[in-house]
């Protein structure tokens, strides 16, 4: 079955851009009818959907984050990425990537802390 693995820096300074990569194995990000998501969970809070990208590279973002969010794909590496700009300590969270469509598959998550 498909597997997803998040990677990126665990510590980001305020005002910088957070960049995370999700590497997909045992499945292709070019397969139709799948949607590739980013979700996060701040400490002590619930899950917050960030956005997703489709196989046609259409993107949809949480309105509260859309001005700072960019999701893209690299089909040659079977990866998709998240960039979140102008981060603040409120962006500290565990970040997850996931595939939706015929069930939902999640990565294990990666902790990102925003601190100077």
Quick gist of this model?
By secondary structure, the chain is mainly β. The chain has strands spanning 3-7, 11-12, 18-25, 35-41, 48-53, 59-61, 69-74, 79-84, 93-100, 104-106, 110-114.
Provide structural commentary:
Helix content is 0%, strand content 51%. It has strands at residues 3-7, 11-12, 18-25, 35-41, 48-53, 59-61, 69-74, 79-84, 93-100, 104-106, 110-114. Strands 2, 4, 5, 6, 9, 10 and 11 form a seven-stranded mixed beta sheet that branches. Strands 1-3-8-7 form a four-stranded antiparallel beta sheet, with no helix packed on it.
SS-derived structural category: mainly beta
- Number of beta strands: 11
> Counting H and I runs of at least 4 residues, what is the number of helices?
0
Rounded to the nearest angstrom, the distance between the terminal CA atoms is 39 Å
Largest pleated sheet: 7 strands, mixed
Q: State the shape.
A: globular
What is the C-alpha radius of gyration, as a whole number of Å?
A: 13 Å
Oligomer: single chain
Q: Helix and strand string, N-terminal first?
A: EEEEEEEEEEE
pLDDT under 50 segments (min length 5)? none
Helix content: under 10%
Strand content: over 45%
Compute the average pLDDT: 96
Protein traits:
116 residues; mainly beta
Topology summary:
Blueprint: E1 3-7, E2 11-12, E3 18-25, E4 35-41, E5 48-53, E6 59-61, E7 69-74, E8 79-84, E9 93-100, E10 104-106, E11 110-114
Parallel strand pairs: 2-11
Antiparallel strand pairs: 1-3, 3-8, 4-5, 4-9, 5-6, 7-8, 9-10, 9-11
